């Protein structure tokens, strides 16, 4: 069985694709740097706003 490597970080993805683990880690780092959270902080849910459907065409 062959496995493909994970998508590269700079690869353009569809706007409705789920966020990646890397994006969640980046979110945690940004919030920690802004003083909102830290290494022990846990986030129960991360939600993105769905783009307008006109943008998806």
Task: Output mean pLDDT.
Answer: 77
Number of strands: 0
Distance between the termini: 36 Å
Number of helices: 1
Q: How big a fraction of the residues is strand?
A: under 5%
Largest sheet: none
Roughly how many Å is the radius of gyration? 15 Å
What share of residues is helical?
Answer: 10-25%
Which sequence of SSEs, written as H and E, runs from N to C?
A: H
Helix/strand structural class: mainly alpha
Unreliable stretches: none
Assign an overall shape: elongated
Q: Care to describe what's here?
A:
- The chain is built from one helix and no strands.
- The chain is an all-alpha fold and 57 residues long.
- Helices cover 23% and strands 0% of the residues.
- It has one helix at 21-33.
- The mean pLDDT is 77.
- It has a domain at 21-56.
- It is elongated and about 40 Å long.
Write a compact overview of the structure shown.
With 57 residues, the chain is an all-alpha fold. The chain has a domain at 21-56. The protein has one helix at residues 21-33.
């Amino acid at each position: 069985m062959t496995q493909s490597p994970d998508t590269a970080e700079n690869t353009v993805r569809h706007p409705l694709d789920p966020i990646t683990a890397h994006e969640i880690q980046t979110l945690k780092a940004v919030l920690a740097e802004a003083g909102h959270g830290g290494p022990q902080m846990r986030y129960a849910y991360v939600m993105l706003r769905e783009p307008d459907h006109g943008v998806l065409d």
